[in-house]
């Protein structure tokens, strides 16, 4: 089996999916202006090239992202698996107004996601964060009811710690944890990944390009608020990433390909989620499958850009305090 047509299973109970997933958030303007027609074309190109797992959330651009996906997958629902996050609430101006993972809210959120996506079930449904006011057992129990009703196929979690994962897994089998992981964000290796392996879970790994830091993306949109892109940290990080770019060029790879190939080499049982918003970006990252890294290559990459070379946290301080995965 070649790299291009292999699959990865999301845990013991989850679906078989293409080894790279497509994260759709940036198609709805999260990191600067986006083009709807190009987003749809990118989604269809991904499906044509075998990508099966599409990741979104009901709060991405206040539902816009789900509606965009609906248009792209029309007539092709059987070719994709939909991973949907819920819980974050927004006002009409887009400003966050809280998080809600109560059982009644869970069932309300999925009702609208099913309608916007134009589907009768969601393949992996997960709270985007831990609701500090609701026991995880209650939230997972509500999703388990949706599994029994045929509205959800698998249950996942996002940005939670090992203790929370263990508690949730006692309620219902879990397919995967969605967590940020990249060459410069490697904390999940300490306790989260061993816990997943122990429980027979997989992981869908977002932020593998570090929100564009590793590829030298323009600092706009949400990036303006991330510590790694601004001030002295931003300047220091740009210098460190320049060495990474030079190393990629020596290997005949783009920075995006090297970033994804490193994740695939380090965590072959897990699935990186790449946020391409154009066909050009998509084809670039998919090229990583044809350029696998050897153990020596992995060590060389880590020597060129050690995680301690990067200054700043992955989220602003207030958001970091809210992450169960950081406790």
TrEMBL record:
<feature type="domain" description="NADP-dependent oxidoreductase">
    <location>
        <begin position="19"/>
        <end position="304"/>
    </location>
</feature>
<keyword id="KW-0560">Oxidoreductase</keyword>
<dbReference type="InterPro" id="IPR023210">
    <property type="entry name" value="NADP_OxRdtase_dom"/>
</dbReference>
<dbReference type="Pfam" id="PF00248">
    <property type="entry name" value="Aldo_ket_red"/>
</dbReference>
<dbReference type="InterPro" id="IPR036812">
    <property type="entry name" value="NAD(P)_OxRdtase_dom_sf"/>
</dbReference>
<protein>
    <submittedName>
        <fullName>Aldo/keto reductase</fullName>
    </submittedName>
</protein>
<dbReference type="InterPro" id="IPR050791">
    <property type="entry name" value="Aldo-Keto_reductase"/>
</dbReference>
<dbReference type="GO" id="GO:0005737">
    <property type="term" value="C:cytoplasm"/>
</dbReference>
<dbReference type="GO" id="GO:0016491">
    <property type="term" value="F:oxidoreductase activity"/>
</dbReference>
């Amino acid at each position: 089996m070649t790299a291009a047509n292999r699959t990865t299973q999301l845990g013991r109970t989850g679906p078989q999916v293409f080894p790279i997933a497509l994260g759709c958030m940036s198609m709805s303007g999260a990191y600067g202006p986006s083009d709807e027609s190009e987003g749809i074309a990118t989604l269809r190109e991904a499906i044509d090239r075998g990508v099966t797992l599409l990741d979104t959330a009901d709060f991405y651009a206040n539902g816009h992202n789900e509606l965009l996906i609906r248009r792209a997958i029309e007539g092709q629902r059987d070719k994709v698996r939909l991973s949907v996050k819920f819980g974050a609430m927004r006002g009409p101006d887009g400003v966050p107004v809280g998080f809600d993972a109560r059982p009644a809210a869970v069932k309300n959120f999925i009702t609208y996601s099913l309608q916007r996506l134009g589907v009768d079930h969601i393949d992996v449904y997960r709270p985007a964060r831990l609701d500090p006011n609701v026991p995880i057992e209650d939230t997972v129990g509500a999703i388990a009811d949706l599994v029994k009703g045929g509205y959800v196929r698998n249950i996942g979690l996002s940005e939670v710690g090992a203790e929370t994962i263990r508690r949730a897994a006692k309620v219902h089998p879990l397919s995967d944890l969605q967590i940020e992981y990249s060459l410069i964000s490697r904390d999940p290796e300490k306790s989260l990944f061993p816990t997943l392996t122990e429980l027979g879970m997989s992981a869908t790994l977002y932020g593998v390009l570090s929100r564009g830091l590793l590829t030298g993306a323009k600092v706009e949109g949400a990036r303006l608020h991330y510590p790694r892109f601004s001030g002295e940290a931003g300047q220091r990080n740009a210098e460190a990433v320049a060495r990474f770019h030079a190393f990629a060029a020596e290997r005949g790879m783009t920075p995006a390909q090297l970033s994804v190939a490193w994740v695939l080499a380090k965590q072959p049982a897990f699935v990186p989620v790449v946020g391409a918003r154009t066909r050009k970006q998509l084809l670039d990252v998919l090229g990583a499958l044809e350029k696998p890294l050897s153990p020596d290559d992995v060590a060389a990459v880590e020597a060129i850009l050690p995680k301690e070379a990067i200054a700043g946290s992955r989220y602003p301080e207030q958001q970091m305090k809210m992450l169960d995965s950081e406790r």
